[in-house]
Amino acid sequence: MKKVLLSLVIVLASSSLWAQRYVLMGWNDLGMHCSNQDFSTFVVLPPFNNVHAQVVRVGDALTPPAVVTANLRITYQIPGNTYSVGKTNFWDYAFQIFGANLLPNIGLTGNGLTGEMTKIDNNFVVTGIPITPYTDADLVHEDPFQLGFLILYDSTTNLTLTTAPPVIPVSNEINCISTGCHASPQGLLNAHDAEGGFNPANTPILCATCHSSNALNAPGKPGLPSLSEAIHKKHGGLTNDCYKCHPGPNTQCLRDVMKNQHGFDCHTCHGSVTNVGETISSGRIPWLQEPQCGATSCHGARYAEEPGKLFRQSRGHGGLFCSACHGEPHAIVPSGNARDNVANIYIQGYAGTLNRCDICHGVVPTGPGPHGLPSPNCCVGKRGNVNVTGIVDLGDLSALVSYLTGGAYVLPCPEAANVNGAGIVDLSDLSALVSYLTGGGYVLPNCP
Predict the structure, then answer these.
(1) Is residue 381 situated within a structural domain?
(2) Containing structural domain, residue 329
(3) What is the DSSP string of 161-212?
(4) For residue range 377-386, what is the model confidence (pLDDT) as tens digits?
(5) What pTM was estimated for this model as a whole?
(6) CB–CB of 356/280 below 8 Å?
(7) pLDDT digits (tens, 9 = 90+) for 110-119
């Protein structure tokens, strides 16, 4: 009997039922990491990707959920991408450029394409993953949105608790040549030959050696503009196309809900190419001072980042990073790229913001949720009462239109506004509500 019970415990411990005690959320910090492929002439950025993760121990009716790290460990890998040497010549020049004597397939922070994440505060992090956009099966065509694979283990028993599939984005398009701007890498360097003390033949040359870069923590040389300032001011008079560089016309960085549902482009948040450079000249610190969700012209104080922090650095509900539920910058879910949506579909069954309260709470809570939003229990009777007045009428249609078109309407009960019950408030809910109100035959679903 004891053997049977022991076997049962082992089976349960390795089952999905046991895995549901924890929720694992993983994400990339920027939504896109650009890198050179060729390092023989000049260098903007090395292969360097960061992944973050948080773990929630699921609660129940008596115990609240908690973000935890104790007695847990997380490994990472990139299925189908097991090596980088030969996909780029970075390792041939790493010592000349960065003074780093690296082993093959090991990046600047000592991490490789597989390994274990490091616990920092209430989260797990791995930095400097030297991934390239080329899978082992295709060394010619870029695959910029590859899925990683995180595995959460019990440190004591080494049992697998759950997994997560975050996108680990990377592109080599940022090379200044393929976009038709410069004739050759050497020609670009030769254009600097009038600069005192600069030898364009002394390659490879790291741009940040002279022009400071906060992306690389490189101080540059005194008296020279930062790389961000110099590049944007120099090119702002020639083009306003951000995809000449970020990272290129094929791998377009912005692909998130702001673009696909609200018509945003790069300029909506960052301004023109020239503006990016001019604001740096006026004192803005590139990479460290960027557009804010909490700006009055955007979402406002209710959805603001932590004081002095960017979206990617901020935490909110229960100590979770904003990206844990919403996705990373430029890929806020639901994203136009299907792979960005995989992680939350894996967790809650549908794309979009992680907003199924019971996933972490184990039950549907009665108190207010993130950003002070009401409990899902605010939906009473039938869905569709967007303005929560007690009756579904044209006032609800007007409220939903305002919300979906950026009219600053704040949903008092998102669950009620989710007319079709698909888990996200979008244009399909508007279509359903119109059908109902115009006698088109749509039947409003019951609230949960």
Answers:
(1) yes
(2) 17-175+296-348
(3) EEEE--EEEEE---SSSTTSS-S-HHHHHHTTTTSTT--TTS-SEEGGGTS-
(4) 788 899 999 9
(5) 0.83
(6) no
(7) 999 999 999 9
